[in-house]
């Protein structure tokens, strides 16, 4: 399928790749047929995990025009050596990335589904908004989870409890953005969470200026 959606500004850009290709087909979309990634991608025993990993590399190349390797901090946070900020996410059938020049970035994409209800007590606070309508409630739960993942990816903190330390100020779901706040760090930080609702997924992202 290829590039599903993208958004570009002067300070950052994000994109979504709809994954329908095989690993070999994804490698063929990279310079030199992905020669720099063949050995690294072969460590994945799961074809689905390998496909997601390669889809992220193809998406980054498509968005930036550069075939730059992704490095990882000990915490697992991805980065480029040139100082460009980076965040990566994937879910069944999709990969998403955001690349920023002006500050820290975070992105998360979640496949639509009912499983989120079972995990809700672990990450939803009593003071967070949930609509009564079942379909809207599922979307709200996915947005809250996704937003907290996005904030977590921007934080440089350990032992973050998604229910205790992260709050999402979701009040309606008409597109646009809502606020988020973390209380794990000494000063705490407030985020503007942008979001997208698709029939197949929800996605959130944020940009934290320097």
Characterization of this structure:
- The protein is α+β, with helices and mostly antiparallel strands and 210 residues long.
- It has two domains: 100 residues, Ribosomal Protein L22, Chain A, CATH 3.90.470; 101 residues, no CATH class.
- The protein has five helices and eleven strands; from the N terminus they run ββαααβββββααββββ.
- The strands form three sheets. The chain has a five-stranded antiparallel sheet with strand order 7-11-10-9-8, covered by helices on one side. A four-stranded antiparallel sheet has the order 1-2-6-5.
- Strand 1 and strand 2 form a beta hairpin.
- Helix 4 packs across helix 5.
- The longest helix is centred in the C-terminal third of the chain and has 21 residues.
- The mean pLDDT is 93.
